[in-house]
Amino acid sequence: MSQKIIQMKTSVSSIEEAEDIAQKLVENRLAACVQYFPVKSIYRWKDNIEKSEEYVLIIKTSSSRRDLIVKTLQQIHSYELPEIVVLEKDFVTEEYSFWVEFETSVDSNLKEEESKR
Fold it and tell me: Residue 66 falls within a domain, yes or no?
């Protein structure tokens, strides 16, 4: 395994949406881990200054899953224009990299299913 490990970032309006997106990404092995936490945002939207409470999601994944995550977020996100940002990592420990790659690989599903038999 030698995929590049990346973090992706998005924000949503509710804890329910944050948990739903996190659950879907991890269950479908698109992400190894998703962290979410509340933030307060000030931004310009449609010529108005807005303030809102949001939840930021940090999605830990391999680069091979990036495009599928973008497509998934575009389909299920409630925002008209969702924030979808990719943060490439210059350094990741070998052990952590292996874990992320394993948890986001299709082969992991097969190994999991075989162990249940």
Answer: yes
- Give 3's DSSP letter: P
Range(s) of the domain holding residue 43: 5-108
pLDDT, one tens digit per residue, over 61-72 is 999 999 999 999
Measured from the Cβ of residue 61, the count of other Cβ atoms closer than 10 Å reads 27
pLDDT per residue over 8-38, tens digit each?
999 999 999 999 999 999 999 999 999 999 9
Measured distance CA(85)–CA(5) in Å, rounded:
14
Q: Kindly state whether residue 16 falls inside one of the protein's structural domains.
A: yes
Torsion of CA 78, 82, 83, 84, to 10 degrees: 100
CATH number at residue 89: 3.30.70.120
The tally of domains found in the chain comes to 1
Q: What is the pTM of this model?
A: 0.86
Percent of the chain whose predicted confidence (pLDDT) is above 70: 89
Q: Looking at the domain assignment, is residue 113 inside a domain?
A: no
Q: Which residues pair with 50 in a beta bridge?
A: 43
